[in-house]
């Protein structure tokens, strides 16, 4: 529509055609109002019944809510109108009449449960709050990519159909690929590592990952967006620095470019985190968790952190923080151990602050040790030969991390369920829409 | 590595540590050179055998090619060095020794066939030319996203695991999803359409698509990158305008930001296309193809264009061009027909110029006709109810398109095989790496 004016751009004195949805109709007797909503906002259209053509009044005031309409008319100042202006219409056209019965009320006056919202995302995203989440999500991706480029990394795309999973056969969705068994990839881990040994050296990827985890919790998805980074000649300290830069860039981008969206969500004092993210060793972390007294049983060295422990420590620290120097045995085989202590890995997690947001570390780049690692994990190194063999031809030391895109949005906005941060989430029960 | 200097940044007078790969060793007797290569370029390291410590000389000149090394030393001007400077080393450390037998020669002196290159992408991307393709690919994605944002569209991510394919059960890879049958999505088509009916109105997505096509040609992939756009209140003319803007933006981004990469690939006069892309009707297209005399049999109305026909017309037009007004029967059911002629669809293709690059059109937004379309296509509308039902609640007229990311890179750079534009391509024979 060449001649369309967005509602937000309609200025007194203009003759405009706006296009959008019939948000609300208020009939006060002699006068009636149609509120037209588009992606930029809303505008009031005034119908003076005695002074206007009956067909025009009928078209504008007897239309079902959420129908698609176009309205042509003059824009006038009107103090009492919600935006200070209104349209006096010359013509109203109903482009697509909506059913009178809506499965979800986009005005937000009637609450809908999450499942109904997810079944009707088209209507759900007509609500300012829901739309705001996804505008913010898009800004997060934009600013994260920009931060990656400022770090000198090259965007890559790695395959989602793979012959072997990153960490073996568990938690993989099997595919039938021209009669062969294949899987949907659970992480770009192995592929991004192959790229740090190439002339690219430093890479990032933002793409889908697939995990056949049986969890059904407010913070797990079976299809998620992974934000991955990997760099040659980086150790785990460098990788944490890069991680901090990227996470802060996401917050800064949103703080700077999403004022309206933050307002729609009720944030009055959204701020990007300042100062360095504290770096706690795993040992310190379990001590502090034990000291909170929140757990029934004290944690001992070697335990993974339980969800309640993460929450207790997150409350205690009160900001994003890293947990470093994990026991080697609870980190994946491709994470390098400390040179002076094989029980201690260079793996790290970023907590946000009561939930794991990022997992990373320096990688094992020495061929012999890597192959040993596969065997210790119970994996057949031959099945991963496409990956391991490249470590024989000059693989530099390297480090990196993976960041959960939806968890970043969820923790940033304080969403209660990770599904609120995905347009069409996938979980055990939900495969459609 | 905090103290690393990139080879391109080493200036005479500096004391530096460079890190990279042993690209070449030239031993001239009393003097020997090690060429160290990193992601920014190469630098010469000079060893004067009589004047230097034997261990140092040995470390720098007896190392296998493609090993990872660090070299610390003083940078000096040297006219005869390839970059005008060289390093006089104080120390050389071999970080990761490479096998003497390489499956592929990254210096490019020995040709490798595509299959060997794809099996050894880590080494293949140490070649300047291959690296250049993927740096350009990253720039294409960056500039395309920027163009989308300038067009006022919001980035979305739609699911890759779906219950039903866009165009039914053919050409889909089946997945086992917690005991249910599911598929890998062949196109975000239906999901992006759902979003134009939401408050977002105008959206884009760049992500993987999966097609179980049995083709094995130099221009088909079974996993590809789709660049998708869709906008409310757009007709097919508007969609073509947006398409032209985005494709040109990709060329302009590369022309502006990838000078070194274009040079590495031997382009001396790379230029973004100028002027409007011609818009030929299908009828005109078949007439012109017939007039070239390149086909054994004349095309008649209703024929799809054969590959040789596309080539002949591409040569004839000589630039990107659109083919519009296709017969309805050879376009998918979700493409809208012309209001005044139901035999004629609003579908369009962008040719680049001898290969289809984009396919798009105005969509059918009227519920009853859409449901009829499913039935005519032999699809069960009930299986797509998650999609069709949203058309009952105010679906605006809309249009959009899908652009093949790899084809964009392939046609831009004149690559002979689309696999050259993907790090790890997937086809019938290739599932690994």
From TrEMBL, chains A, B:
**Quick one: which residues bind L-aspartate?**
167, 211, 359, 363
Q: Which residues are recorded as binding ATP?
A: 211-213, 219-221, 356, 404-407
Q: Where is the signal peptide?
A: none
Q: Name one Pfam family in it.
A: tRNA_anti-codon
- According to its UniProt record, where is this protein mainly located? cytoplasm
Q: Which cofactor does it need?
A: Mg(2+)
InterPro entries attached here?
Answer: Aa-tRNA-synt_II (IPR004364), aa-tRNA-synth_II (IPR006195), aa-tRNA-synth_II/BPL/LPL (IPR045864), Asp-tRNA_synthase_2 (IPR004523), Asp/Asn-tRNA-synth_IIb (IPR002312), NA-bd_OB-fold (IPR012340), NA-bd_OB_tRNA (IPR004365)
Query: Keywords for this entry?
Result: Aminoacyl-tRNA synthetase, ATP-binding, Cytoplasm, Ligase, Magnesium, Metal-binding, Nucleotide-binding, Protein biosynthesis
Binding-site residues for Mg(2+) 3, renumbered to this chain: 356
> What is the reaction catalyzed?
tRNA(Asx) + L-aspartate + ATP = L-aspartyl-tRNA(Asx) + AMP + diphosphate
Where Mg(2+) 2 binds, per the record, is at 356, 359
Q: Where is this region: Aspartate?
A: 189-192
Q: Where, per UniProt, does this protein localize? A: Cytoplasm
Note the site residues: Important for tRNA non-discrimination: 82
Q: Does the keyword Oxidoreductase apply?
A: no
GO BP, sorted A to Z: aspartyl-tRNA aminoacylation
Record-listed E.C. numbers? 6.1.1.23
Q: Looking at the keywords, is tRNA-binding present?
A: no
Biological function: Aspartyl-tRNA synthetase with relaxed tRNA specificity since it is able to aspartylate not only its cognate tRNA(Asp) but also tRNA(Asn). Reaction proceeds in two steps: L-aspartate is first activated by ATP to form Asp-AMP and then transferred to the acceptor end of tRNA(Asp/Asn).
Q: Which HAMAP family match?
A: Asp_tRNA_synth_type2
Subunit and interaction comment: Homodimer.
> Per its record, how is this protein called by name?
Aspartate--tRNA(Asp/Asn) ligase
